[in-house]
Fold these 4 entries.
Entry 1:
Amino acid sequence: MEVIQLLISGISQGCVYGLIALGFVLIYKATEMVNFAQGDMMMIGAFVAVTFINILEWPFVWGLLATIGVMAVFGILLERLLLRPMIGEPHFAVLMLTIGLGFILRAVAGAIWGNEPRVLHAPYVGEVWRVGGVIIGADNVAIVLGTLFLCGLLFLFFRFTRLGIAMQAASQNQLAAYYVGIPVKRIFSLVWALSAVIAACAGVLTAPVSLIDPLMGFVGIKAFAAAIVGGFGSLPGAILGGLLVGIVEQFAGLYLPPGFSEVSAYVLLLVMLMVRPAGLFATMQQKKV
């Protein structure tokens, strides 16, 4: 029973890592940029949801939809104002820009919403089911179901919509996509919007489980490790890497010395880099010519 309980908690936490890792992978595949502020975008999304749901007292569904809209616009503005002028600059410059952006977002969040931890008012918070000797929280179930729903939507979007196919084409070969009439710059903006929306959904899903504060975005570092474990550039790999990191973290917290749980993600990352440097789904991230 203890193993099953750990698996449930690990899968729930791993889904959050996987969603944030999806944002890393989407931006990297489309623009070849690494956004180290992805975790902080999740934090901003959680605070925006708190504003609509807790402060303005909107119904949960309407607050979630408003949060998605605000974060989509936020992602577009970030790409237009900060990242687009960096096209053609060294990758190190873009990397430092996104790291600095993370610091700015944490400072802005502290100035607007304060540094006191907050709890998002969700309709499923506090509900618990007992199945045999296993305790299943409704919030954990919501995280898993929400992740499955988002992954299903992304699959349908990239498989059957013209915009999704255009995004895939731009990620495979930007120059060829431009020559066939795909507006590559507009696609980049939409990718950043989609990444911000996914980060916001991850923030809303995890908010009832963990407190919301300006430092919660540091979870993005573990999500980055998850993206590398799964194969940086692979969308299924991002989810699988997140699940592995979440499960390993839970078992390390129980069976290994105190404090090891916090570094287990990085230990897993080091092991993966030594055994399979390209990640679990390495064959899926080769670009087509």
Entry 2:
Amino acid sequence: MLYLGDKHIRAIGLHWGELVDSMEAAVRIIDSGDYAQPIKPYLRYRNPANRIIAMPAYVGGAVQTAGIKWIASFPGNIDAGLPRAHSVTLLNNAETGIPYAMLNTPLPSAARTAAVSGLLIRHYLAAQGAERRLKLGIIGFGPVGRLHYDMCCQLFGERLENVYVYDIRGCELDFTGADNDLRSRTRLASSWQQLYTECDLIITCTVSNQRYIDIPPAAGSLLLDVSLRDYTPAALSGINAVIVDDWEEVCRENTDIELLHIERGLSKAQTRSLSDVVCRGALAAFASTEPVLFCPMGMAVFDMAAADYFVERAIALGIGLQVK
């Protein structure tokens, strides 16, 4: 079995274009039906804010792997100076079931999240046209927020007018992946309200335990609700363009989508899936002034595809430990 630890993953590096391509290929496999992904269970005990999630999936197509990610999310770790999330991923041969790789996946897991966001932004900009420019705002600048900054700077830097960052705990700007010009256009916002009113591409990457965004989005805004529990229903009730990665996954566990479903009657039929966006150009149906909301619960298929990508890169580069 091949083992990839954090130092191996960092030696491979985060090549955002390739990672987004991997997520796009996974979406097309999902759309073909050649996959299996049961609803992920949540293990909770003692403190209900903590959870350990089992995420199994089979990915067909050119990937041909099965596996599981076991991810712990303990928000209180941040106050103790520890990472919030920890995870491992195990891959099995799709034909024999034999395990062939194990990855320590906090970084791949967070990078997968950013790559899925990158995939949505890629198709959003394609639908908007070559002239569209965005003002990027990231609320929450922990590991996931910093990876989103890195990804957006590397892939979409030429389409960004300005960047604002806000974290309730305070933050230092991490300029990894940003050229000098983009650094000069990156600002620390004084509040989420300032960021929200200044920007039209807003990415929430928080661990907030209460909803705080109570202002409807401006016309033409793209909201990437990565942390899933930041918006009040009143702020989102006027949005007609709602994109989800998987309705059955995301409409539960107190997400903003579930709250819209319960309080405002949002139904699956009123949303579009990421497959609709990637495979059928669903974003082109909305006017350029229409706010777009993307709520990704996180799909195990994407984690298996990302793990397979890192394993292939590791084998090509001769990186990793062979464990017997």
Entry 3:
Amino acid sequence: MDRSTLFPRTSPPPAARDILALLKPITWFPPMWAFAVGVVSSGAAIDGRWLLVACGVLLAGPLVCGTSQAVNDWFDRHVDSINEPDRPIPSGRVAGRWGLFIALAGTLLSLLLALALGPLVLGAATIGLALAWAYSAPPFRLKSSGWWGPAVVGLTYEGLSWFTGATVMLGAMPSWQVLAILLLYSLGAHGIMTLNDFKAVEGDRATGLRSLPVTLGVRNASLLACSTMAATQAIVIALLIGWGMVLSAGIVAALLVGQLILMPRLVRDPARNAPWYGATGVTLYVLGMLAAALGLGGYF
């Protein structure tokens, strides 16, 4: 098919349902959850701040995360026209340059809302959006690296969203304890993001994407992913105990034990079992985030 036919210079605006499909609402939950965890970790009462919380959820999910999805699909449009032609852009449902326009509009709207929420939130949103563009767009295209790609996604989905939730509630920089825990969970999320790469090893190899399953091998990559998730949570447990948050530490430890029980099945067949582990082990991981936040917020 001629490229000018697939991506004409002028085209009618896409339907709302196709824009929503481009923004992938299913991907919004992780940063929205991390934002909520940040709110809890602040220890501040929500009474009278529901509008701030709602705006923060909108920023973390539909705006910043949704924009990152549009950016990714725009810069992957040529590959998707071969591998996933039913996606909104290659299918022509979001035709012409509308994918790029939506990504740019989402970036601007995100920055405007972040500005209204304060300078610290604006700084976090700016970093998150810059990483979203660098993740997908040349010349950086960080997604092509199995080390940088998952690190960027883990930091933005977990760390910056958590930071934003805490900052919105406090109106100031969170405590160093909160910063330490959110950074550890962001690092552990590197392993979670690697799980997404097991389903596309052959495609990544063929297109030159150097995911960890491609560069290290499937088994070694699964072992590294499990070790990263487990080690960071072990450090979280040790810090919580050291800070006197024993109940919070105990809950995180119990959830980690559950993950350790599940991990051998993942390692036996990562390509087949990564979705299963995402529904089980990753759920325990993110519940541990909440347990840690409850300790940090003084609820335990």
Entry 4:
Amino acid sequence: MQEPASYLIYNTHTDKLFPDAFRNDYHVHILCHEGEMSFSTKHKNFTVRANDLAIWQLTTPIFNISYSKDFDADFLLISREYLSKYNPEMLYATKGYVFIKNQPVISLREQNKIIINEDFTQFKSRIRQPYSLFQEDIIGRLLQVFLFDLWNVIEDELDHTVIDDNSTRIFLHFLFLVEEHCKTQREVQFYSDKLFIVPKYLSQICRSVSGQPASTWIENFAANELRHLLNNRELTLTEIADQMNFSTMSFFSRYVKKVLGVTPTEYRKENS
């Protein structure tokens, strides 16, 4: 059986497909050009119109979806694993995640619409080309550019977002701690102690807010740090292992294999 694609892009008019068919398998990014779409989350109803960008996260249940007859939109589908692999910056990714969970429809100003539309055009051009040797990484780099553009668009909202829910506050505090300490601390117990709660409760909070346990977020941050260090060819593998507080090289190699899917040596060969 063929594995699902890591990324896809469609247009509602030309492809005769609609984003709701994919909402349970992908993070869905919908750029509306014309017409309207409406949908509901557990707490609110939303309407998407021309020049809006809607984002359906996998962890957010979407209901009551309807489209106008003239609804024209491009929609980009990104798998959970692919997004995790190519996320360029974990802290803004998390702040954006929390913001979008509560506000999944973003109205784009004209200049921002041009920028996001250019990103979608690049995705369409590259994804629809015949498969090439470095296509996975090329699309991954395009995804990183798109995410940077997206965070720039919502930067003011991110900086002024008021977090009322206590679980979300704890989750964000946890992520700030992980960003600070992930180089050397990779156990849930360390972070729960810092937050004065038990590990089980911390993981429950992480699951309720993000759909992922605390351990997965720690691994995501550590993986991001590992990629950054492994891409620095001036550092030896031993130096990287020391910086990240691994007691032995074999433990270091096993951990890299776990979070990146390849050993440190294999990673450097694949990214040489």
